[in-house]
Amino acid sequence: MIRAEWTKLRTVRGWVAALAGGLLLIVAFSVAPGAGGTCDETCRLPTGPEGQEVTDAFRFVHRTLTGDGSITARVTSFTGERDAGPGRSEPGLVPWAKAGLIVKDGVRPGSSYAAVMLTGAHGVRMQHDYVHDVAGPTGPRTPRWLRLSRDGDTITAAVSDDGNRWRTVGTATPDLPSTVEVGLFVTSPQHAEVSTKVFGLSGASGGPSTATATFDHVGFEGTTAAGWRTQQIGGPSATSAVAGTDGAEEPRPGPPQPASRSSARDGVFTLTGNGDVAPAVSGANGLGFSVTRTLAGTFVGLVPLVVVGAMLVTAEYRRGLLAVTLAATPRRGRVLAAKAVVIGGVAAVLGVAGAALAVPLGTAVMRGNGLYVNAAPTSTVVRMVLGTGLLLALCAVFALAVGTVVRRGAVALTAVLGLTVLPYLLAMSVLPARVGDWVLAVTPAAAFAAQQSAVEYSFVDNLYVPSAGYFPLPPIGGLAVLLAWTVVAFTAALVLLGRRDVR
Predict the structure, then answer these.
(1) Are 396 and 59 in contact (CB under 8 A)?
(2) Considering the entire predicted model, what is its pTM?
(3) Which of 44-53, 95-104, 419-428, 471-480 has the lowest mean pLDDT?
(4) Which run of H or E residues covers position 219?
């Protein structure tokens, strides 16, 4: 039966052309996001100690520490400003603005570190190596005493309200050399907010921000170099400076950096900074695009596959040929199973082949045209490629089952495309974020989560929405939703095919 169904499929030229067209559409649309350029080589992001791309930009006042030791400081004030439109700003800290103490493997962006910090709205935190975050106590933002200690390979973060009674926030063991840079830092990421527009549709607004913190009672234990150095770590216009005799900044030649500065007088340090120390994300508040963008043509390539899947059975209904097939094979379930194996297998092969070509080609074109693409590990890319094959295979079998139930090609196509492609398009471009998440969690379009490459971090503010590559379900969960719809439809098709007359 499988051989017979395969013969039917490959001998209908229109079906073969449609399947080939689906493959070409997946590959062709992979280059569409690279049509314009917004970034050059200066926007490339550093790679963190664990292989992820990271953002590492902050104002740093520091000195060298050799061996074990500690730094203690009191944060007496922490304020900020954020963009409020063209030429305007408003006071206020963004939720993940950071001010505190940091120990770092030199000043190279992306190098290993551990830090204890106050945040704009999330209390005291300890973070290390960009992707690790430990929550400390909440309460009044300032004044707060912070301490960062090194004992061998272990870094310990502590906080105090009065400088006498200390509470441990957390410990970490980043891969740090014996000689490190330790000091004060301030940074403030871009802010992004969901705004409501006409007819309830959601959009994004936001912009750059800065934070300013004042430190006093700065003290060290251990072997440290004399004198402070101050500089902007990372960012497109990072400049460095050396503290003068009174601690005031003496800039080295370079482009001005009005949003990042520091000063020190009578043991009181004031730092203003922007940027972030965090894993890189894609989206409205992130940098670049996710690799998922290269598979944007999947929903287009899905259409001809669904057409062929439905017509594999509806064409026989229309021409009365299914009666001949069932006369040769009275066990009707075997006929439907054979059709499912053939169309599902072909769709899976085309999906894997299309995705395997689309991801590297689309990434190369986007980067070649000046767009930044957040890199994805090889394991993620393999999962995306295989997931695309499963997505197309299940959709094709789903179309076959619906076609068997309704026995009309136009009705089957309308139903399947209305449950897969349409919800995807609406969630990406029209529906409010929460509604779009709900749609992509309950309809067969949930299976597009198999193509997600971006990682969502609870400690990085961003608009984690489908249009930015973030789906409400994990990849296996999204495929499970489509599988459930397919199983229900296929079961109904088996029951109806076995009970009713063929007309």
Answers:
(1) no
(2) 0.78
(3) 44-53
(4) strand 209-224
